[in-house]
Specification:
Blueprint lengths: L3 E5 L7 H9 L17 E4 L4 E5 L11 H9 L10 H15 L1 H8 L8 H8 L3 E2 L2 E2 L1 H13 L12
Parallel strand pairs: 1-3
Antiparallel strand pairs: 2-3, 4-5
Helix pairs in contact: 3-4, 3-6, 5-6
Length: 159
């Protein structure tokens, strides 16, 4: 039986290497919950006589809409450093408020996105000391709720 060669191509942090590991029946590709784990093209063997080329994630070089960059940052497909954490966290809360208000209530214990929302979340997660909120910690917490899959089964790509 001739070996088949295939390539796995896609956006960063969508599970290309995880798929290859599943097909191999063991860990042959390094995985991580962040973009940029796969650094170069690597041929990997699977248990099905398929040789698969694992590739780094690819994206178009420029986003026509700011919303695309926010969506990709919210779901960890591009590095969080591209957009300030505060802006990503606000975008996540605002989008959840519009599309998934029940998640906003259940996960963050807030009814709406307001000036006090980050304070409430900070107090709820223990990110306050002497009534001072550690906002950086709150922003990371909100982002990590999606990244760590505490919030799943959602999409921000709609219309």
């Amino acid at each position: 039986v001739k070996e088949i060669k295939a390539v796995v191509v896609g956006a960063p942090n969508v599970g290309k290497s995880t798929l290859i590991n599943h097909l191999a029946g063991k860990k042959v590709a390094k995985t991580g919950n962040m973009p940029g784990v796969t650094k170069s093209n690597v041929w990997l063997k699977t248990k099905y006589k398929i040789l698969i080329l694992d590739t780094p994630g690819i994206l178009w070089p420029k986003f026509d809409e700011e919303k695309v960059a926010f969506n990709l940052c919210a779901f960890s497909a591009i590095k969080e450093e591209v957009i300030p954490h505060q802006d990503i966290a606000y975008y996540i809360l605002n989008t959840l408020s519009v599309r998934y208000p029940n998640i906003l209530k259940e996960r963050f214990k807030i009814e709406e996105v307001s000036e006090e929302a980050f304070d409430i979340i900070g107090k709820n997660i223990g990110a306050s000391k002497n009534d001072e909120i550690d906002y950086k910690r709150v922003y990371k917490y909100i982002i990590n709720e999606i990244k760590s899959e505490h919030i799943k089964g959602i999409t921000f790509d709609y219309e």
